[in-house]
TrEMBL record, chain A:
Keywords: Ion transport, Potassium, Potassium transport, Transport. The keyword Ion transport applies. Residues 1-123 form the RCK N-terminal domain. The keyword Transport applies. It holds the Pfam family TrkA_N. One of its GO terms (molecular function) is potassium ion transmembrane transporter activity. GO terms for cellular component: plasma membrane. InterPro entries: K_uptake_TrkA, NAD(P)-bd_dom_sf, RCK_N, Trk_Ktr_HKT_K-transport. Gene3D superfamilies: NAD(P)-binding Rossmann-like Domain. This is TrkA-N domain-containing protein. It comes from Gaiella occulta.
UniProtKB/TrEMBL annotation, chain B:
This is Trk system potassium uptake protein TrkA. GO terms for cellular component: plasma membrane. It comes from Gaiella occulta. PANTHER family: POTASSIUM CHANNEL PROTEIN 2-RELATED-RELATED, TRK SYSTEM POTASSIUM UPTAKE PROTEIN TRKA. PROSITE patterns: RCK_C (PS51202), RCK_N (PS51201). GO terms for molecular function: potassium ion transmembrane transporter activity. Residues 138-219 form the RCK C-terminal domain. The lineage of its organism: Bacteria, Bacillati, Actinomycetota, Thermoleophilia, Gaiellales. Keywords: Ion transport, NAD, Potassium, Potassium transport, Transport. Pfam families: TrkA_C, TrkA_N. Residues 1-125 form the RCK N-terminal domain.
Length: 142, 219
């Protein structure tokens, strides 16, 4: 099984490494050559330098043959466009896209893009954490 | 009509000024504060500070009315694509015009069905070809959605069409000659018009027939 991870920052590189440990053949893509170092010295997967909007770069990374694509650059709109290109142009079966803005994440989720919104996740977790507090016990403390 | 202009750089600001001059109502959205402050001096309430790819910003700009026209003319193609998609698919805006900054991104706009698009680079390259015809065929107008193109062809010295009447030409099905320009004077092409080497011929055709038309006229 082959995965392409576009955007090799803190999130993308960690996802790439985990998928590789799980047995996937992984190619990472990033604009910065230095991003390769985030994958660790033992990285045996692929790495392509270039912008994810560039179809030459996507093709060199093997997106057309990929079973999965993870799009996690630092730009929401780039991710949204690249995700749709992976889905519609290259027919990648499993495309997951990081979108920080909850409203845009929801808008595109309704249109068939699998968006993951870390902001929404943080909102839910933080809210649930407060709800789970025993407020009376907290208030009794000096 | 009511127009939202997303992007207040040179393109957005100049288009906004012209549309206001024509009596249209509009909102001009710019995300950079320094640029917005300059726009506010000239445009007053028409200028709005915000990222037009954010749905809340578009709603404040009146996307739900919906506007008659949205112009996505920022300097970022991914932003223009997202603005155009939200306008069309989220708010049923009927007319969206998007700017393509990098011509290599045109394919993404086509893939996602966003159009019409305007690309200054492609336009300038088209003019270069028009002024210095190297390939014999220049696209003058593309009506993508309608599936028609208007092209100009320079008839070569060894053209198979040279000396023939228009009615007798073997042109590809789905193409038709519109006019023939010779020595700077254009005439409407009729069946009896005779084609000469050096003529500049304007033709209308279905996309994909360019090469066949080029072979028939340029040689």
């Amino acid at each position: 099984m082959k995965a392409v991870v576009i955007g090799c920052g803190r999130v993308g590189s960690a996802v790439a490494k985990q998928l590789a440990l799980d047995g996937w053949g992984v190619t990472a893509v990033d604009e910065q050559e230095e991003a390769l170092s985030r994958l660790g010295s033992g990285w045996s997967g692929g790495f392509v330098v270039g912008h994810g909007m560039d179809t030459d770069v996507l093709e060199r990374a093997g997106l057309a043959e990929a079973d999965a694509a993870v799009v996690a650059t630092d730009g929401d709109n780039s991710n949204i466009v690249i995700g749709q290109v992976a889905q519609k142009r290259y027919g990648v079966a499993c495309v997951v896209v990081r979108v920080l803005d909850p409203l845009r994440a929801e808008f595109y989720a309704r249109r068939g893009l699998r968006t993951i919104c870390p902001t929404q996740t943080a909102i839910s977790f933080l809210t649930d954490a407060v709800r789970a507090c025993d407020v009376a016990a907290v208030a009794e403390k000096p | 009509m009511y127009v939202i202009v997303a992007g207040g750089g040179k393109v957005g600001a100049n288009v906004a000024r012209s549309l206001l001059g024509m009596g249209h109502e509009l909102t001009l959205v710019e995300q950079r504060r320094d640029r917005f402050e300059r726009l506010e001096v000239e445009f007053g309430h028409v200028a709005m500070l915000g990222d037009a790819t954010e749905i809340t910003v578009l709603e404040r700009a009146g996307i739900a009315r919906p506007p008659d026209l949205v112009l996505a003319v920022t300097g970022d193609d991914e932003d223009n694509l997202v603005i155009a998609q939200i306008a069309r698919e989220g708010y049923e805006v009927q007319k969206v015009i998007a700017r393509v900054n990098d011509p290599r991104n045109q394919q993404h706009f086509d893939l996602l069905g966003i159009g019409p698009t305007v690309c200054a680079t492609s336009g300038i390259l088209g003019l270069v070809e028009h002024e210095v015809p190297e390939h014999g065929l220049v696209r003058l107008l593309e009506l993508r959605r309608e599936g028609l193109e208007v092209v100009e062809v320079l008839v070569g010295p060894d053209s198979p069409a040279a000396g023939k009447r228009v009615a007798g030409l073997a042109l590809p099905d789905g193409s038709r000659l519109v006019s023939v320009m010779r020595h700077g004077v254009a005439e409407i092409a009729v069946g009896d018009t005779v084609i000469r080497p050096g003529d500049q011929v304007v033709a209308i055709l279905k996309p994909g027939l360019e090469d066949a038309l080029r072979r028939a006229l340029v040689g």
